[in-house]
Design brief:
Elements (H helix, E strand, L loop, with lengths): L5 H9 L1 H16 L5 H14 L3 H13 L4 H9 L2 H4 L1 H19 L4
Helix pairs in contact: 1-2, 3-4, 3-5, 4-7, 5-7
Length: 109
């Protein structure tokens, strides 16, 4: 995966104790149940689509790929949101995810 988003890096520099606690909370939540990393990242991708949060979508696309998800699984995750999130929100998320997939394939973040 590429480097962390600039805004997150700045947050970490400005508030290191809070950032460390935030990361520990995420790790604890991940370890609290039976879902594997790929499934967790696909779920988080769907949650990011619901917001919609572009940087989170990019991040979770890269993380899902690193956890073994395929581009088809990533797209399917977002397509499932068509009835829950609505067509425009799903299409926005899909557009951002496709940009992240292209960046990942090109070796970027």
């Amino acid at each position: 995966m590429g480097k962390l988003p600039r805004r997150y890096q700045e947050f970490h520099q400005q508030h290191p104790a809070l950032a460390t606690a935030y990361e520990a909370l995420g790790a604890t939540a991940a370890d609290a149940g039976p879902l594997d990393a790929k499934v967790r990242e696909l779920i988080k991708l769907g949650m990011a689509a619901a917001l919609p949060a572009e940087t989170a979508i990019h991040s979770h696309v890269h993380r899902a790929l690193a956890a073994g998800a395929t581009p088809a699984e990533i797209e399917h995750t977002l397509l499932l949101g068509i009835t829950t999130l609505g067509f425009p929100t799903m299409m926005t998320a899909l557009t951002w995810a496709r940009a992240a997939l292209a960046a990942h394939a090109a070796g970027g973040s």
